[in-house]
Amino acid sequence: MVKLYDKDIREPLFDFLEERYGKIRIIEEKQMGRSRADIVMVMPCAVAGIEIKSDADTYVRLKRQVRDYDRYFDRNYVVAGGSHGLHIREHVPDWWGIITAEKVDGAMDFYVMREAGDSPKTDLKLKLGILWRPELAHIQEQNGLPGYKQKSKKFVTDKIIERVPEDILNVQISQELFERDYNEIGAIIGEYKKRRGY
Fold first, then answer.
1. What pLDDT sits at residue 162?
2. Is 177 helix (H, G, I), strand (E, B) or coil?
3. Three-state SS for 66?
């Protein structure tokens, strides 16, 4: 069996996910709690976390990662290289999806061993915390909420959760992540640093 590393799995996985799940947006290496999500897959009504376990990885951090993924995302998947395929279900909860990865005739092949169910532990406040302040402001505007310009991000997220039904909010969070412009935010941060003399 060919030993698979993260770099072997990652790029072909994006194509597989797009083909299987339709309209998605991929965000890589997103900090969540004390862990870092390998991939965040934005879908029209939900956000999924994806952890890659290549043949070079161990299960040492997986317990903590599972706990963090479950709180931040609506559903979660683990993508397991060949050596983990047989044992991975012992290391993740029943609601996690499992995708196996192997090389067949020189090309990457993915197989959905188990589809993900909804995480029973998703914390809407943490999920909303993934959004940047201008994205939260847009959600406030869409739902006719005050600007709360002088208030903390925590205050704003609490107010949004209080006033916007969860099903509507899930769709709006996905919309914001679909439209996120990293170039624009980079320019804003650059301008801020210049003004502050960094």
1. 94
2. helix
3. helix
